[in-house]
Specification:
4 helices, EamA family transporter
Amino acid sequence: MSIHSQSRGELVLVLVTILAAFGWIFAKESIVEMPPLLFMGIRFLLAGIILVMLGKRFFRGLNFANIKKAMMVGGLGVWLWGFGSQGLITVIIWG
C-alpha cells in the first residue's frame, strides 16, 4: 500500500466521522420537530436516492429478474429477523 492511498483512506475515515457527527446533531434537532417514523422515512428515502445516483453505473446491468430476486432475498431476511426477534422476546418473557 502506498503512502498516498493510505493518506486518502485516512482522509475518507475522517470525513465519514465528521459526516456521522453532523448526522447525530441533525437527527437530535429533527426529532424535536417531527415524528420519529417520519424522520426515519425521509432519511432512508434521501439515502436511497443518493445511493442510486452515486451507483448509477452499477445498476445499468440489472434486469427485472435480478431485481425481483434481490427483493425476495431482502424480504426474507427482514421476515426472518423479525421472526427471530419475536421468538427471542417470547423466550425472555415466558422463560
